[in-house]
Amino acid sequence: MPRKVSLKNTRNIGIMAHIDAGKTTTTERILYYTGVSHKIGEVHDGAATMDWMEQEQERGITITSAATTCFWRDHRVNIIDTPGHVDFTIEVERSLKVLDGSVAVFCSVGGVEPQSETVWRQADKYGVPRIAFINKMDRIGADFGNGVAMIRDRLGANPLPIQLPIGKEDYFRGLVDLVTLKAYVWDDATMGASFEEIEIPAEMQDDVDAAREALLEEISSHDDEMMEKYLGGEELTLEEIKGAIRRGTQKIDFCPVLCGSAFKNKGVQTLLDAVIDYMPSPLDVPPIQGVNP
Predict the structure, then answer these.
(1) Which of 4, 48, 133, 281 is least surrounded by CB atoms within 10 angstroms?
(2) Which DSSP letter does residue 157 get?
(3) Residue pair 131/249 in contact by the 8 Å Cβ criterion
(4) Closest alpha carbon to 49 in 71, 72, 26, 16
Protein backbone atom coordinates (compact mmCIF):
# COMPACT_ATOMS: atom_id res chain seq x y z
CA MET A 1 0.00 0.00 0.00
CA PRO A 2 1.57 3.34 -1.02
CA ARG A 3 2.28 6.01 1.57
CA LYS A 4 -0.38 8.70 1.83
CA VAL A 5 2.34 11.22 2.74
CA SER A 6 5.81 11.09 1.21
CA LEU A 7 8.90 10.83 3.38
CA LYS A 8 9.87 14.30 2.16
CA ASN A 9 6.71 15.62 3.84
CA THR A 10 7.22 13.68 7.07
CA ARG A 11 8.69 15.02 10.31
CA ASN A 12 9.66 12.76 13.24
CA ILE A 13 10.14 15.02 16.24
CA GLY A 14 10.27 14.85 20.01
CA ILE A 15 9.19 17.41 22.59
CA MET A 16 11.74 17.64 25.41
CA ALA A 17 12.06 19.88 28.45
CA HIS A 18 12.58 20.21 32.19
CA ILE A 19 9.53 19.23 34.23
CA ASP A 20 6.80 21.92 34.28
CA ALA A 21 8.20 23.88 31.31
CA GLY A 22 4.90 23.20 29.53
CA LYS A 23 5.97 20.35 27.28
CA THR A 24 2.81 18.22 27.45
CA THR A 25 0.61 21.34 27.34
CA THR A 26 2.39 22.36 24.12
CA THR A 27 1.81 18.88 22.68
CA GLU A 28 -1.89 19.02 23.63
CA ARG A 29 -2.28 22.36 21.83
CA ILE A 30 -0.58 20.90 18.75
CA LEU A 31 -3.08 18.02 18.76
CA TYR A 32 -5.98 20.45 19.15
CA TYR A 33 -4.97 22.86 16.36
CA THR A 34 -4.16 20.03 13.94
CA GLY A 35 -7.59 18.50 14.52
CA VAL A 36 -6.45 15.28 16.22
CA SER A 37 -8.39 16.14 19.38
CA HIS A 38 -11.49 18.32 19.53
CA LYS A 39 -11.11 19.23 23.18
CA ILE A 40 -7.99 20.58 24.83
CA GLY A 41 -6.81 18.16 27.52
CA GLU A 42 -5.26 19.97 30.47
CA VAL A 43 -2.42 18.41 32.48
CA HIS A 44 -3.67 19.88 35.77
CA ASP A 45 -7.08 18.26 35.20
CA GLY A 46 -5.52 14.86 34.50
CA ALA A 47 -7.07 14.97 31.04
CA ALA A 48 -4.02 15.28 28.79
CA THR A 49 -4.17 12.89 25.84
CA MET A 50 -0.46 12.12 26.03
CA ASP A 51 -0.51 11.33 29.77
CA TRP A 52 -2.42 8.05 29.49
CA MET A 53 -1.14 6.24 32.60
CA GLU A 54 -3.14 6.57 35.80
CA GLN A 55 -0.02 7.65 37.70
CA GLU A 56 0.63 10.40 35.13
CA GLN A 57 -2.92 11.71 35.43
CA GLU A 58 -2.79 11.70 39.23
CA ARG A 59 0.55 13.52 39.44
CA GLY A 60 0.27 15.79 36.39
CA ILE A 61 3.65 14.65 35.05
CA THR A 62 4.82 12.57 32.09
CA ILE A 63 6.42 9.24 33.07
CA THR A 64 6.67 7.36 29.77
CA SER A 65 7.27 8.64 26.26
CA ALA A 66 4.04 8.71 24.25
CA ALA A 67 3.79 8.90 20.46
CA THR A 68 1.11 10.41 18.27
CA THR A 69 0.65 11.65 14.71
CA CYS A 70 -0.90 14.83 13.34
CA PHE A 71 -1.05 16.65 10.00
CA TRP A 72 -0.14 20.24 9.25
CA ARG A 73 0.25 21.98 5.87
CA ASP A 74 0.03 18.65 4.01
CA HIS A 75 2.83 17.23 6.16
CA ARG A 76 2.69 14.29 8.53
CA VAL A 77 4.19 15.10 11.94
CA ASN A 78 5.01 12.15 14.22
CA ILE A 79 5.49 13.45 17.77
CA ILE A 80 6.98 11.81 20.84
CA ASP A 81 6.18 13.59 24.11
CA THR A 82 9.03 12.72 26.49
CA PRO A 83 9.17 12.87 30.31
CA GLY A 84 10.66 15.97 31.95
CA HIS A 85 11.36 14.42 35.36
CA VAL A 86 14.98 13.51 36.11
CA ASP A 87 13.96 10.01 37.26
CA PHE A 88 12.78 9.12 33.74
CA THR A 89 15.77 10.44 31.77
CA ILE A 90 16.35 7.05 30.14
CA GLU A 91 12.96 7.42 28.40
CA VAL A 92 14.20 10.61 26.76
CA GLU A 93 17.46 9.01 25.62
CA ARG A 94 15.64 6.05 24.08
CA SER A 95 13.44 8.46 22.13
CA LEU A 96 16.29 10.67 20.91
CA LYS A 97 17.93 7.66 19.25
CA VAL A 98 15.08 7.42 16.73
CA LEU A 99 14.13 11.08 16.27
CA ASP A 100 15.05 13.26 13.29
CA GLY A 101 14.56 16.51 15.21
CA SER A 102 13.36 17.90 18.51
CA VAL A 103 11.55 20.88 20.01
CA ALA A 104 13.17 21.96 23.28
CA VAL A 105 10.64 23.77 25.46
CA PHE A 106 11.92 26.30 28.01
CA CYS A 107 10.04 28.27 30.66
CA SER A 108 10.41 32.00 30.03
CA VAL A 109 10.81 32.55 33.78
CA GLY A 110 13.05 29.61 34.77
CA GLY A 111 15.01 29.52 31.51
CA VAL A 112 17.47 26.65 31.24
CA GLU A 113 16.88 24.30 34.19
CA PRO A 114 18.86 21.21 35.29
CA GLN A 115 16.89 18.62 33.28
CA SER A 116 16.97 20.96 30.27
CA GLU A 117 20.75 20.61 30.33
CA THR A 118 20.61 16.82 30.66
CA VAL A 119 18.31 16.26 27.68
CA TRP A 120 20.19 18.87 25.62
CA ARG A 121 23.46 16.97 26.15
CA GLN A 122 21.71 13.76 25.11
CA ALA A 123 20.48 15.45 21.92
CA ASP A 124 24.08 16.60 21.29
CA LYS A 125 25.26 13.02 21.77
CA TYR A 126 22.93 11.73 19.05
CA GLY A 127 23.29 14.77 16.77
CA VAL A 128 19.59 15.69 16.88
CA PRO A 129 18.73 19.11 15.32
CA ARG A 130 16.67 21.33 17.63
CA ILE A 131 14.23 24.22 17.68
CA ALA A 132 13.83 26.08 20.99
CA PHE A 133 10.37 27.24 22.12
CA ILE A 134 10.42 29.74 24.99
CA ASN A 135 7.04 29.07 26.57
CA LYS A 136 4.95 30.76 29.29
CA MET A 137 5.52 34.30 27.98
CA ASP A 138 2.34 35.23 29.87
CA ARG A 139 3.87 34.42 33.29
CA ILE A 140 5.06 37.04 35.78
CA GLY A 141 8.81 37.41 35.34
CA ALA A 142 8.79 36.25 31.70
CA ASP A 143 11.99 37.32 29.93
CA PHE A 144 12.61 36.20 26.34
CA GLY A 145 16.07 37.80 26.14
CA ASN A 146 17.20 36.09 29.32
CA GLY A 147 15.98 32.73 27.99
CA VAL A 148 18.02 33.18 24.81
CA ALA A 149 21.10 34.19 26.84
CA MET A 150 20.77 31.13 29.09
CA ILE A 151 20.57 28.81 26.07
CA ARG A 152 23.85 30.32 24.88
CA ASP A 153 25.63 30.43 28.27
CA ARG A 154 24.37 27.29 30.00
CA LEU A 155 24.05 24.97 27.01
CA GLY A 156 26.91 26.28 24.88
CA ALA A 157 24.49 26.42 21.98
CA ASN A 158 24.09 29.07 19.28
CA PRO A 159 20.51 30.36 19.70
CA LEU A 160 19.04 32.21 16.73
CA PRO A 161 15.86 34.16 17.56
CA ILE A 162 13.51 34.03 14.57
CA GLN A 163 10.66 35.66 16.52
CA LEU A 164 10.26 38.45 19.05
CA PRO A 165 7.36 38.56 21.56
CA ILE A 166 4.85 41.40 21.48
CA GLY A 167 4.55 42.29 25.16
CA LYS A 168 5.10 39.97 28.08
CA GLU A 169 3.39 38.73 31.26
CA ASP A 170 -0.26 39.87 31.27
CA TYR A 171 0.40 42.00 28.19
CA PHE A 172 1.73 39.20 25.98
CA ARG A 173 -0.38 39.41 22.80
CA GLY A 174 1.56 37.74 20.03
CA LEU A 175 4.85 37.84 18.17
CA VAL A 176 6.85 39.32 15.30
CA ASP A 177 8.21 36.84 12.77
CA LEU A 178 11.73 38.03 11.88
CA VAL A 179 11.85 35.85 8.75
CA THR A 180 8.69 37.17 7.08
CA LEU A 181 8.68 40.51 8.96
CA LYS A 182 5.02 40.01 9.89
CA ALA A 183 3.39 40.48 13.29
CA TYR A 184 0.61 38.25 14.63
CA VAL A 185 -1.74 38.58 17.59
CA TRP A 186 -3.99 35.82 18.89
CA ASP A 187 -7.68 36.04 19.67
CA ASP A 188 -8.47 34.95 23.24
CA ALA A 189 -12.17 34.54 22.43
CA THR A 190 -11.48 31.65 20.04
CA MET A 191 -8.95 29.98 22.40
CA GLY A 192 -6.16 30.92 20.01
CA ALA A 193 -7.69 29.11 17.04
CA SER A 194 -7.68 32.36 15.06
CA PHE A 195 -5.01 35.00 14.87
CA GLU A 196 -4.55 38.06 12.73
CA GLU A 197 -1.69 39.80 11.05
CA ILE A 198 -1.05 43.35 12.27
CA GLU A 199 1.48 46.09 11.63
CA ILE A 200 4.71 45.68 13.57
CA PRO A 201 4.23 47.87 16.69
CA ALA A 202 6.08 51.18 16.23
CA GLU A 203 7.78 50.89 19.63
CA MET A 204 9.29 47.54 18.57
CA GLN A 205 10.61 48.62 15.15
CA ASP A 206 14.19 49.32 16.29
CA ASP A 207 14.42 45.99 18.14
CA VAL A 208 12.95 44.15 15.14
CA ASP A 209 15.42 45.81 12.73
CA ALA A 210 18.38 44.90 14.97
CA ALA A 211 17.19 41.31 15.46
CA ARG A 212 16.52 40.89 11.73
CA GLU A 213 20.03 42.15 10.94
CA ALA A 214 21.54 39.72 13.46
CA LEU A 215 19.49 36.88 11.93
CA LEU A 216 20.71 37.60 8.40
CA GLU A 217 24.32 37.98 9.56
CA GLU A 218 24.26 34.66 11.38
CA ILE A 219 22.70 32.59 8.61
CA SER A 220 24.98 34.21 6.01
CA SER A 221 28.09 33.34 8.05
CA HIS A 222 27.29 29.63 7.50
CA ASP A 223 26.46 29.89 3.80
CA ASP A 224 29.03 31.22 1.28
CA GLU A 225 26.47 32.00 -1.42
CA MET A 226 24.26 33.88 1.04
CA MET A 227 27.26 35.74 2.45
CA GLU A 228 28.21 36.97 -1.02
CA LYS A 229 24.70 38.29 -1.69
CA TYR A 230 24.37 39.77 1.81
CA LEU A 231 27.72 41.62 1.69
CA GLY A 232 26.92 42.76 -1.83
CA GLY A 233 23.78 44.45 -0.53
CA GLU A 234 21.48 42.22 -2.59
CA GLU A 235 17.96 41.54 -1.35
CA LEU A 236 17.57 38.01 0.03
CA THR A 237 14.34 36.25 -0.89
CA LEU A 238 12.10 34.55 1.67
CA GLU A 239 12.91 31.15 0.14
CA GLU A 240 16.65 31.80 0.43
CA ILE A 241 16.37 32.85 4.08
CA LYS A 242 14.19 29.86 5.01
CA GLY A 243 16.47 27.52 3.10
CA ALA A 244 19.55 28.84 4.92
CA ILE A 245 17.84 28.50 8.32
CA ARG A 246 16.79 24.95 7.45
CA ARG A 247 20.30 23.94 6.39
CA GLY A 248 21.92 25.57 9.42
CA THR A 249 19.41 23.95 11.79
CA GLN A 250 20.02 20.50 10.34
CA LYS A 251 23.80 20.92 10.55
CA ILE A 252 23.32 22.21 14.16
CA ASP A 253 25.14 25.43 13.28
CA PHE A 254 22.47 27.20 15.31
CA CYS A 255 19.14 26.62 17.02
CA PRO A 256 16.12 28.72 15.93
CA VAL A 257 14.34 30.23 18.94
CA LEU A 258 10.58 30.87 19.00
CA CYS A 259 8.25 32.14 21.71
CA GLY A 260 4.68 31.76 22.88
CA SER A 261 2.33 30.65 25.62
CA ALA A 262 0.91 27.18 25.02
CA PHE A 263 -1.49 27.45 27.98
CA LYS A 264 -2.87 30.75 26.64
CA ASN A 265 -2.97 29.26 23.11
CA LYS A 266 -0.50 31.70 21.55
CA GLY A 267 2.35 30.80 19.22
CA VAL A 268 1.52 27.12 18.66
CA GLN A 269 0.62 27.43 14.97
CA THR A 270 3.83 29.32 14.21
CA LEU A 271 5.77 26.62 16.10
CA LEU A 272 4.20 24.00 13.82
CA ASP A 273 5.15 26.09 10.79
CA ALA A 274 8.76 26.14 12.03
CA VAL A 275 8.74 22.35 12.47
CA ILE A 276 7.66 21.98 8.83
CA ASP A 277 10.03 24.66 7.49
CA TYR A 278 13.22 23.88 9.45
CA MET A 279 13.17 20.34 10.87
CA PRO A 280 14.67 17.55 8.71
CA SER A 281 12.64 14.91 6.92
CA PRO A 282 13.78 11.27 7.18
CA LEU A 283 15.43 11.76 3.78
CA ASP A 284 17.67 14.50 5.22
CA VAL A 285 19.01 12.26 7.98
CA PRO A 286 22.07 10.09 7.23
CA PRO A 287 21.65 6.33 7.73
CA ILE A 288 22.49 4.96 11.16
CA GLN A 289 25.73 3.04 11.27
CA GLY A 290 25.27 -0.40 12.81
CA VAL A 291 27.72 -1.62 15.45
CA ASN A 292 28.63 -5.24 16.02
CA PRO A 293 29.04 -5.58 19.80
Answers:
(1) 4
(2) -
(3) yes
(4) 26
What Cα–Cα distance (Å) separates residue 93 from each residue in 97, 99, 113? 7, 10, 18
CATH of the domain at 244: 3.40.50.300
Length of the chain (residues) = 293
By the 10 Å C-beta count (0-12 exposed, 13-18 middle, 19+ buried), 102 is classed as: buried
Residue 292 is assigned to a structural domain of this protein: no
CB 218 within 8 A of CB 254: yes
Number of domains in the chain: 1
| Model-wide pTM > 0.85 | yes
pLDDT tens digits for range 199-247:
999 999 999 999 999 999 999 999 888 899 988 888 899 999 999 999 9
Buried b (16+ CB within 10 A) or exposed e, 32-47: bbbebbeebbebeeee
Report yes or no on 293 lying in a domain: no
In a domain, 106, yes or no: yes
